[in-house]
Task: structure prediction
Amino acid sequence: MSGTDTPHQGWRPAFRGWRARRPFWGGLLLTLGGGWILLTEKASLKVVIHVGMQGVAGYLLPVVMVLCGLLTLFSPSQRLFYSILGMLCSLGSWVTSNLGGFFVGLLLGAVGSCMIFGWLPDQEPRVSRRKRRKAARATAQQSQGFGEGAGEPA
Result:
């Protein structure tokens, strides 16, 4: 034995637990949006539309988007600041970076930022409709099984 009492469960349950404690999908979308905008900066000259400063701002805003997405994944306690900064950078990429990566990066960044902003860490996991119906049937059967007046004093 390895000296631990718990058996090795594998990487999937560990990843699910890690993912459940942070706004994973929002951080991933914000990171992908920034990455997409960075990729469109390197597009061929026939496709590129540079509006605004071509140098620093065109590359700075998508890099900040990627950093905000990654920092959200690894430091979820500061998610509100990262989501607001990510949204501002996403909207700013409209002017500085090929119309926000031809709208794709802008939309990914905006949706990811909204998902990060709306994530609640203390919220109970959602219960599926099937499980709610099953629990309702079980309580209804228990209440019918005792009959009328079974628990009432005479």
